[in-house]
Amino acid sequence: MHSVYASMDTTIFEHMSGLARELGAINLGQGFPDEAGPSDVIAAAARALTQKSNQYPPGAGLPELRDAIGAFYARRQGVEFSREEVIVTSGATEAIAAAILALVEPGDEVILFQPAYDAYAPMVRRSGGVPVSVALTPPGWRYDAGMLEVALTTRSKLLILNDPLNPAGTAASEAELAAIAEICVRHDLYAICDEVWEEVRFDGAPHRSLLSFPGMRERAVKIGSAGKLFGLTGWKIGWMCAGAEMARGLARAHQFLTFTSPPALQWAVAEGLAKPDAWFAAQQAGWATSRGRLKQGLEQAGYVVLPNAATWFLCVDLAASGIMLDDRTFSERAVRQAGVASIPVSALFEGDGPRHVVRFCFTKSDATLDEAVERLAAFRRSLTA
Ligand code: GLN
Q1: What is the number of domains present in the chain?
Q2: Measuring from atom 7 of ligand 1, which residue has the nearest CA?
Q3: Cα separation, 258 vs 94, whole angstroms
Q4: For residue 178, what are the domain limits?
Q5: Domain of residue 301, CATH code
Q6: What is the 30 CA–ligand 1 centroid distance (Å)?
Q7: Predicted confidence band at 112 (pLDDT cuts at 50, 70, 90)?
Q8: What are the backbone dihedrals phi and psi of residue 103, each rounded to the nearest 5 degrees, phi first?
């Protein structure tokens, strides 16, 4: 077994979802909505299964979907991608893997901001690269150009930026993005822009891709996810967008990972992306209501909720809430004793990081959120009594 995997545990997401299933707990851990998802998009997939080809679509994705992704970003973010600049993948995680495999050579250093999706560092190592961490700190989790400069060496090859940031639930400001872009250009770095939360934003600010800053177009790959856009996480349809030359290299890496993804789902996502802006606004408003409900419930129960601007997650500061357990202990006990699964944020840090922050997913029905809050309120009382 390769040493990267031999020494590794199951991901925290699978671990907590497994415990939630086994114990019958409410799962506010792994991020997924408990609604069925948009019925017309699901119906489009069902129709495509019986009316369209079920044989291999083109490796880079159905041309119709690649055009729809280009049109979506032109309309929503003012960034243009031709069909040749879009590659459909089996979820954003595959896109991240393909991009790392395509760009990282043995010995290359890859800057990862922490907390980070736990898929990044192992994939960098498996490609022979060396992850170099730049830690962000709660409650703001802001980017600091000085800290980024300090982490750079002559071996720095690329950085991975997840914006908006999971698990923090924050979004980089225009000034932070401009500073990161300027450093990428000055130090000749590539950037993998994991923007799967681009449409899950509650601060009223429009999403702006790092790829759209001066000098970034030819050095950045922008990654998106239909799972997050439509609340259909099991579909595993994602994509990567990049300048034509980089896209050719990315497609070569992708062709030996999953080669291609189910055509019926690709047809349906193409239809979904053509939905009007008002549909996306309504979906976001629904998520905002759930976010408000969980935030208010947690606060009434005595939990201190950290500032949040984006994603499906709220983070709680345990120490500020008067709970002296570390986050892993809290999560392990809360799922067993209170019947509510969460994600300990330290699981998304390598080495030292804060151990007092726990993440809860709020894209659930009102009844589920209310029941979870009631259980967490009683649990907190039992801890602080
Ligand atoms: N992005 C998901 C989350 O944060 C996890 C993804 C996964 O489990 N592969 O919950």
Answers
A1: 2
A2: 13
A3: 8
A4: 39-275
A5: 3.90.1150.10
A6: 6
A7: very high
A8: -110, -25
Distance from residue 119's CA to the centre of ligand 1 (Å)? 9
Enumerate residues lining ligand 1, CB below 6 A: 13, 30-31, 93, 166
13 CA → ligand 1 middle, Å: 6
Tell me the one-letter amino acid at 260.
Answer: T
Domain match, 300 and 263 both:
no
287 and 328 in one domain?
yes
Cα torsion for 30, 34, 39, 41, to the nearest 10°? -10
CA dihedral 260, 264, 265, 269 (to 10 degrees): 110
Q: How far apart (Å, rounded) are the C-alpha atoms in residues 111 and 152? A: 8
Instruction: Return the best residue to mutate from 9, 13, 313, 359 for the ligand 1 pocket (most ligand atoms within 8 A of CB).
Output: 13
Ligand 1 mean position, distance from CA 106 (Å): 27
Ligand 1 atom nearest residue 93's Cα: 9
Q: How crowded is residue 4: how many other Cβ atoms within 10 Å of its Cβ?
A: 14
Residues 63 and 210 in one domain: yes
Domain boundary among 223, 253, 275: 275
Find the 298 Cα to ligand 1 centroid distance in Å.
22
Distance of CA 117 from the midpoint of ligand 1 (Å): 8
Radius of gyration of the chain (CA): 20
Residues 26 and 17: their CA atoms lie apart, in Å, by: 9
| CA neighbor of 136 nearest in space, from 303, 352, 329, 362 | 352
18-56 as b/e: b if 16+ CB within 10 A: ebbeeeebbbbbbbbbeeebbeebbebbeebeeeeeeee
Task: Write out pLDDT tens, residues 187-225.
Answer: 999 999 999 999 999 999 999 999 999 999 999 999 999
Q: Are residues 208 and 300 in the same domain?
A: no
Contact 237, 263 (CB under 8 A): no
Atom of ligand 1 nearest to the CA of 32: 10
pLDDT in tens, 344-378: 999 999 988 999 999 999 999 999 999 999 999 99
